[in-house]
Design goal:
129 residues, alpha+beta, 4-stranded antiparallel sheet, 3-stranded antiparallel sheet, 35% helix
Length: 129
């Protein structure tokens, strides 16, 4: 299944609304990263998402749901994270943060720990939760 199909299966899913290509490019430029194609598709369809057991950051007005604000904050908290990773979910428990790179790999960090690959894609990460 692709990312749109996977997200649409989430229970009690609330989307902040589709992001424009201009908003996505602006976010990439502000962070100095390239988003994975899958993440761009997610942003174009949903913006950001709240659902049972998951809160995916993206393009949103809220600083706690906006990928630029959350990523910059988490880069400051954990100096072991390379600047090509961006946050897709801040678990909010024991400092666990979920990141993605431009190839789509999903990483996990905890308090001042280096990123560890946990999934091959955002779709797989959501499905495995």
């Amino acid at each position: 299944m692709n990312i749109v199909e996977v997200v649409n299966l989430l229970e009690d899913m609330i989307s902040t609304g589709a992001a424009s290509e201009k908003q996505i490019i602006s976010a990439e430029q502000e962070l100095g990263v390239l988003f994975a194609d899958e993440y761009k598709e997610f942003l174009q369809q949903f913006g950001s998402v709240l659902a049972d057991d998951i809160e995916l950051v993206g393009i949103a007005k809220s600083k706690n749901r906006n990928v630029v604000d959350v990523t910059k904050r988490e880069w400051e908290y954990n100096k072991n994270v390379p600047k090509n990773l961006y946050v897709v979910e801040n678990i909010g428990i024991e400092g666990i943060v979920i990141w993605q790179d431009e190839k789509g790999l999903i990483y996990q960090t905890s308090l001042n720990k280096a990123p560890k690959v946990i999934n091959k894609s955002l779709s797989e990460y959501i499905t495995d939760k």
